[in-house]
Design brief:
The protein is an all-beta fold. The chain has strands spanning 3-7, 10-13, 18-25, 34-39, 46-51, 58-60, 68-73, 78-83, 92-101, 106-110, 114-119. The model has no long low-confidence stretch (mean pLDDT 95).
């Protein structure tokens, strides 16, 4: 059974930083493209960042480009999202995803989500 568990969320002031982690188990993480999505209350789930299975390719939503960095450590079965210069509009539940389809906002596997709240 594939399982993704996010951690690292919390409350931070605008301009601060958080690092989210996604622990992957049940399969070999190196077989999967990975991504991060987020969903604010009453809003659609939005794409945040993508990283290919090898780490050789990344993509970011325009809203986070230059502030967020996605990375992976396949030896640790973990994907990370470093979030810097956080803004109140970054407040959302952040979800880790395996085998994401970015245009469709879909994935084969999802984590349970971790709350990120950015105060002004």
């Amino acid at each position: 059974q594939v399982q993704l568990v996010e951690s690292g969320g919390g409350l931070v002031q605008a301009g601060g930083s958080l690092r989210l982690s996604c622990a992957f188990s049940g399969r070999t993480i190196s077989s999967y493209d990975m991504g991060w999505f987020r969903q604010a209350p009453g809003k659609e789930r939005d794409f945040v960042a993508f990283i290919s299975w090898s780490g050789g390719s990344t993509n970011y939503a325009d809203s986070v480009k230059g502030r967020f960095t996605i990375s992976r450590d396949n030896a640790k079965n973990t994907v990370y999202l470093q979030m810097n210069s956080l803004k109140p509009e970054d407040t959302a539940v952040y979800y880790c995803a395996a085998d994401p389809n970015i245009p469709l906002g879909e994935a084969n596997y999802w984590g349970q989500g971790t709350q990120v709240t950015v105060s002004s």
